[in-house]
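Before relying on records like the one below, remember that each one covers exactly one chain. Contacts with other chains, cofactors or solvent are not represented anywhere in the record.
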Amino acid sequence: MSPTYAVRVADDPADREACFAVRKEVFVVEQGVPQEIEYDAHDPGAVHVLAVREDGLPLGTGRLLYGEAAAAKTDGDPSVGSLGRLAVTQEARGLGVGAALVRAIEDAARARGLTAVDLHAQTHALGFYERLGYVAYGPEFPDAGMPHRAMRRVL
């Protein structure tokens, strides 16, 4: 039996800190992303989602940018949100946490009247996002020293 978990919007400061702790563990420690580029000016206004195990242990996180914050990542289209910073802890991989986080971000996008969600996927994760309905477009590009592709899903 796999452990049960819940996904929620991270509205309170403790949930936000849990989101940042997961991002640090996955991106900074595991993948070697410099800490100074992992956290940015978009974090305060973003919608953050958090997956937590029933005992409260954080398992994963992701964020949605919309409006002006998303414009640079969505070719300026105000109806498109930007999914980013999706991170699942090593011990929680394979449990469906990543997919649940993506769906929660899509729900947050719909609630804000958005019609599509864009993301910049690490190329090794393309298949994961394709299974969730995202379609890659444009050339491969580097981000934090790793190859990425832009992807979009119409909601």
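The first strand starts at residue 5 and ends at 9.
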